[in-house]
Specification:
CATH class: Alpha Beta
GO molecular function: acyltransferase activity
Number of helices: 9
Shape: globular
Protein name: Beta-ketoacyl synthase chain length factor
Number of strands: 9
Order of helices and strands: EEHHHEHHHEHEHEEHEE
Pfam families: Ketoacyl-synt_2
Organism: Brytella acorum
Number of domains: 1
Length: about 260
């Protein structure tokens, strides 16, 4: 079993505009009203890179910065795990469209913005951080595997780790096969040192087979069907409600069982 503390958390998606507002929705104190997701250009990037950054990069950087600020940590003190199932699908669609025509050319700028670790790289470059950052993609299980990776690294290295999970719709032919309906992302700052001084303690263990039958997805939980990163919503709800609760996240093989205990 791994025991880890949660020091910071945030979320962005339709009708979810940061932790303070999402807290009320996940507690049932405010109706969930789907709406557009506003993603301001990242202040940490130089003007040229800021203009070139796509929606996925803007989402990831916004989440990482919000979670670290809530935890009261400087980016230079935090390791990172950036987990995304789709990566920058819009950038990839643009590249494939360019290659599909005669004499098609791909801009080097477009290419380096499309790679899977672009958001993680921009985050470290924008903040001048030299702490290790990992980018991973595990199909529909990216949030769960990202959480497992972040928790393990946090325990081994005894350093805080920010997990950022995010995905956005993919345009073009790929998007008709790999359907992602909404833009959604969340971030958690994990800390193994003095775990009980944060928002909650997570006791995590791995099991075989599926975790538990899926509950009916109504209201805000319907986002789970439209975005792999939204599989984080049951865990986010447990953190918001400040209640002891078991959450299971299915993985590529087996599941991650999480006992949530508020501090």
């Amino acid at each position: 079993m791994m025991r880890i503390g949660v020091r910071g958390v945030t979320v962005r998606g339709p009708g979810l505009s940061g932790w303070a507002q999402a807290l009320r929705v996940l507690r049932g104190e405010e109706d969930w009203v789907p709406g557009p997701v506003h993603l301001p250009p990242p202040d940490c990037l130089p003007p040229n890179e800021r203009r070139r950054s796509g929606a996925v990069t803007r989402l990831a950087l916004l989440l990482a910065d919000e979670a670290c600020a809530q935890a009261g940590l400087a980016v230079s003190d935090v390791r990172g795990v950036f987990a995304s199932s789709n990566g920058d699908g819009a950038g990839m669609d643009d590249i494939l469209a360019s290659l599909s025509v005669p004499d098609g050319e791909v801009s080097p700028t477009r290419f380096h913005n499309s790679v899977h670790n672009a958001a993680a790289g921009y985050w470290t470059i924008g903040h001048g951080a030299i702490t290790p950052v990992v980018a991973l993609g595990c199909f529909d299980w990216s949030f769960g595997h990202g959480l497992l990776k972040a928790a393990a690294e946090c325990l081994v290295e005894r350093k805080p780790v920010v997990l950022v999970a995010y995905d956005a719709p993919i345009p073009g032919p790929i998007g008709r096969v790999r359907v992602t309906k909404d833009i959604f992302g969340c971030a958690l700052v994990l800390d193994a040192e003095d775990a009980a001084s944060g928002l909650a303690v997570l006791d995590m263990s791995c099991g075989v087979g599926p975790g538990e039958p899926e509950a009916e997805r109504q209201g805000v939980y319907g986002l789970i069907d439209g975005n792999p990163a939204a599989k984080a919503l049951p865990l986010l709800a447990a953190l918001a409600r400040g209640q002891n609760r078991r959450v299971a996240l299915d993985g590529a093989s087996g599941h991650l069982s999480i006992e949530v205990r508020p501090c």
